[in-house]
């Protein structure tokens, strides 16, 4: 769920203890959904962002129209010429936009709709049931909480999140929430197949063997992720994910991240792909592990700056 307001006219309180307020909120295990269900009429201070953090709303009644990239994956099955054109579109989208939409991706509409319905069922559960899943222990197979960066970001987001590591070693079914267990398993299987196809396309878009990204394992969604920008040495760009505030109803989204989840001390090191480097195009980032990247990202929080700056060499 996403919602935000500015702090215009907000009175400063000399005795305000933000850390204590955040801890008290987290201890309830009710999240933003709990606040919304309680019928509050005023957004708590911890959710109020500085006024300068928001884009000014256009006074025009006309909505903006963007001709963003749409890639028809049906072309991958229509021979080498169509595949070459598809790869070209993916390359252009990844270089200029950092994201693209796919159609004819092969995931049944019924599966997509049931996944969204499963999310609603999870968050619509009675609070006493839902809170059993609430945790900040990242080692759990299922993690549900409000704001992963609650204690590090400048202000909290009006959002709750639940996530589960479904691969490479799927959890036992009984480890998943009963209200969305079956569809989580089915959806993850379908997305895994789509992810493999996208890895092939993006590998070719970088001028690499189609199996390159599948073989090494990495981090990304159809929105190009930070690690792929690092590995492509800025050939592909990672973009900040932002959405418009919604004061009408809950906003639900389901994101699937493809990355290596090995966060042990010996985790694999990722750096700019050597085949893409040259004297004219030297490495722009130092190598890192998924563990180091995620640790830095979580500690930094969503402060409006890119985590990639921390790993940049020049």
From TrEMBL:
Protein name: OLC1v1035849C1
Gene3D superfamilies tied to this protein: B-lactam Antibiotic, Isopenicillin N Synthase, Chain
Keyword Iron assigned: yes
Family: Belongs to the iron/ascorbate-dependent oxidoreductase family.
GO MF assignments: 2-oxoglutarate-dependent dioxygenase activity; metal ion binding
Organism expressing this protein natively: Oldenlandia corymbosa var. corymbosa
InterPro entries named among the record's database cross-references: DIOX_N (IPR026992), IPNS-like_FE2OG_OXY (IPR044861), IPNS-like_sf (IPR027443)
Stored Pfam families: 2OG-FeII_Oxy, DIOX_N
Keyword match Metal-binding: yes
């Amino acid at each position: 769920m996403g919602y935000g307001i500015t702090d215009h006219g907000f009175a400063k309180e000399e005795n305000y203890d933000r850390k204590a307020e955040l801890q008290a909120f987290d201890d309830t295990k009710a999240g933003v959904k709990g606040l919304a269900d309680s019928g509050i009429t005023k957004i708590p201070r911890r959710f109020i962002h500085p006024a300068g953090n928001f884009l000014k709303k256009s006074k025009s009644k006309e909505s903006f129209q963007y001709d963003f990239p749409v890639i028809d994956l049906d072309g991958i099955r229509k021979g080498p010429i169509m595949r070459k054109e598809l790869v070209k579109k993916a390359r252009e989208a990844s270089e200029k936009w950092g994201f693209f939409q796919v159609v004819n991706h092969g995931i049944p509409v019924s599966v997509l709709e049931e996944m969204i319905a499963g999310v609603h069922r999870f968050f619509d559960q009675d609070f006493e049931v839902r809170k059993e899943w609430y945790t900040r222990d990242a080692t759990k197979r299922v993690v549900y909480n409000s704001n992963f960066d609650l204690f590090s970001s400048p202000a909290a987001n009006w959002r709750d999140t639940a996530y589960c590591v479904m691969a490479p070693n799927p959890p036992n079914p009984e480890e998943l929430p009963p209200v969305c267990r079956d569809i989580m398993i089915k959806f993850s299987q379908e997305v895994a197949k789509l992810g493999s196809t996208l890895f092939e396309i993006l590998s070719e878009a970088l001028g690499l063997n189609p199996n390159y990204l599948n073989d090494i394992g990495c981090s990304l969604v159809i929105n190009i992720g930070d690690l792929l920008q690092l590995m492509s040495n800025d050939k592909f760009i990672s973009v900040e994910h932002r959405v418009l505030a919604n004061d009408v109803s809950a906003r639900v989204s389901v994101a699937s991240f493809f990355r290596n989840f090995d966060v042990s001390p010996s985790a694999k090191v990722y750096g700019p792909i050597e085949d893409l480097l040259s004297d004219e195009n030297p490495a722009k980032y130092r190598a890192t592990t998924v563990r180091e990247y995620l640790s830095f990202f979580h500690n930094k929080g969503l402060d409006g700056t890119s985590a990639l700056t921390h790993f940049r060499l020049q």
